[in-house]
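Changelog-adjacent note: as of this version, every example in the card shows the full chain rather than a window. The one below runs 317 residues end to end.
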Amino acid sequence: MAAEDLEREAYSAPNPNFDTGHIVSLSPDQPQQIVIAMGGGMDKTGEVFTFLKENGDGGEVYLSTQATREQQDTWNTYKRVFDDLQFDTNNLIHIDSTNDTPTPSQLRPKVPRMLVFAGGDQAKIMDEVSDEDRETIVENNKQGMKVAGWSAGAAVLGEHMIVGFDPEDLKLNDLDSDPDTNYADDFEIFDGLGLVPNAFVDQHFTQRERHQRLAEAVTAVAGIHPENPPWGFGVDENTAAIFVDNEYFDVIGTGTVTVFDGTRRDEWPAEIDSHDIFDGSNGIFTINSGGRFDMGTRQPVYADIVTFGPQELQTVA
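Full-length structure tokens:
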């Protein structure tokens, strides 16, 4: 049955009380660790980008285009997007691969409101992020700097990161594809930024049918570290998972987030249909927009979603 023919129920039921307009301010002496993973294919005037703009208001937002080949064009595009959303673009600061823009490690003297990674090639981001940069990003995130990314920019947010090919990747990278090769199953695992610990964050998820790939990646790491199997989080296009203190995440947007609980991998089917809706009975969950997943209880919950408004941020020593 096609995905569009399914009535998303059970763990994918939308929360009727969800409203991104309910913004609350956080106490400046209690910064929360917020990580926003966006699945790509974003509606630039929609709910997710509006949420991003609202959470950047009142402070500096650093936008990294390091993942892209056309960094200046990407910067120009998203500067217009933020401008159209009525964000003060004087507070939007570009991070690219040249020496005339700040690297994340240069952010140490102060904590910006938000750091955002644009899409492209996740391996390219990690090639350009030094150990010092990574340490600074993690420290600043703990001090209240929100970190967001879409597409490849979301893939780097987890502790583990998938780098691989599928037909869409091949088209985007102008590579010649072999029609007899299943590139979707050809991937490698690298370290990410670790902002979402012990987890993979995958993107364009249902649209590119990446369920089997993510399950295999989680299983591969669990085989190396059976005492601490990882999570797998697959974020659909035009959708975001908002991780809070690595305790739970909320879902906004038009799609779903699929959760693979690595501790229950023995319950997963051998072949995973990307069009299935998962109720959690086998350790795989489909969480729809308006839903919340508690990573402590390893179960979904439904409550009003709390979003995060402006706060004064502390300086990292």
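Structural remarks: The chain is about 20% helix and 25% strand.
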